[in-house]
Amino acid sequence: MAPQIVHTEGESNTSDARKTWLKKSIGPKSKPLLARDSDAFLHQSLSSPCVSTIAKADGLWIEDKDGRRFMDFHGNSVHHIGYGHPKLVAAIKAQLDDLSFAPRRFTNDPAVELAEKLAEIAPGDLCKTLFTTGGSDANEVALKIARAATGRFKTVSFWDAFHGAGLGAASVGGEATFRSHIAGPLLPGCEHVAPFACYRCPYNHAGPDVCGLACAQMVDYVLEREGDVAAVIAEPMRAVPYVPPPGFWKSVREACNRRGALLIMDEIPTGLGKTGKMFAFEHDDIIPDIVTLGKSLGGGILPIAACVARKDLDVCGDFAIGHYTHEKNPVTARAALTTLQIIEEEGLVARSAELGDYAMQRLQNELADVPTVGDIRGRGLMFGVEIVEDRADKTPGNKRAEQIYYACLEAGLSYKISQGCVLTLSPPLTITRADLDHALDIVITAIKEVPG
User: Fold this and answer.
1) Residue 370 sits in the same domain as residue 245
2) How far apart are CA 241 and CA 356, in angstroms?
3) pTM for the whole thing?
4) Is residue 439 domain-shared with residue 424, that is, in the same domain?
5) How far apart are CA 358 and CA 345, in angstroms?
6) pLDDT tens for residues 94-124?
7) Same domain, residue pair 184 and 119
8) DSSP string for 193-211
9) Integer angstrom CA distances of residue 361 from 145, 246, 358, 365, 444
10) Which family does it belong to (predicted)?
11) Would you say residue 9 lies in a domain?
């Protein structure tokens, strides 16, 4: 599935910057398709109407119908190995010739091999898997397992988190875009706490140790007061991006152990090497009870996600927790298995760590004196630059961030704006050092040149 060029949280479809871009930069071959798209698709935030077209996607690059090329530093978090990796394309074609589908209750080699491979790379006793077609469904499977294993139904999760667009996933999620429009109640028992690194928190500027302790204690407090929580579900590193404070997840892991709650880690955008480790939670020296994967698992070509649980959580044999039509599809399984092989063979996890450190250092060095930069943060090849009006109180600079975005898009770089003001940069792990430098040049120049 080809990505869209832009996906900026909170961006208005009628903003002046967007109107200017559409008027000035969209070519004659793209305009008719954009109009047809707007007529044919239901409109929604972050999706339709679109701001350009896609005709080609190759490696780091996407190209519109008028031949304009962009480096893609967003990719909906699917393009870890770049678009159209030749080994992956060949594997999918061969699998189509060999076996294209498997109806439920019949197994096949690629599906079993993929489940075994996930058990091999996952730490601890994470070794029992169920495949779904998307991350939202994988998270809902995880929640069903937690209910069955604990006999409880309540959850604790974080405001501003994103766990998918399904009703159950939106209920435990905390992002307003996916909750505010839903008429009537969401799932009962979905308790939420403030996220770590929340700018409204009074401990936010007290240092990472104090901040992390305060947030983790709030999770423990809610688990204790509720007394019957099935699971805590969370992103190990928020993809906006926000890195957890030191010791945060160890404290939450211990609280879950004390209160009898499971810990579910949603690694759908952050897993498989994006942060410089195979799983983002490995940075924090913990092992969850359940981990969910998706997005990049299909190699940027096919949709597949996975829920991977501890062996002793295989407790749902007498009922259905995910009767998905493509549960053991041999083609999507082959795509995922080949993607994991490419990540290992090309050393992409270590590459992500190395290039991510380089990018962060360069941004910190060259933007240190820019007063509209509030923070530079991230791990591996998932990093961001927070744009502010006032560095002292970190007043969000949403309008300036949007202006910077369109300046970068005009220069040939696409990425995502998170939380209205965070330039979120997430290139494929296969990016060359030269292309990374070129993209950083574009971002740094735009930040410095947009009026402060």
Assistant:
1) no
2) 13
3) 0.94
4) yes
5) 22
6) 999 999 999 989 999 999 999 999 999 999 9
7) yes
8) EPPTT-TT-TTTTS-HHHH
9) 42, 20, 5, 6, 13
10) Belongs to the class-III pyridoxal-phosphate-dependent aminotransferase family.
11) no
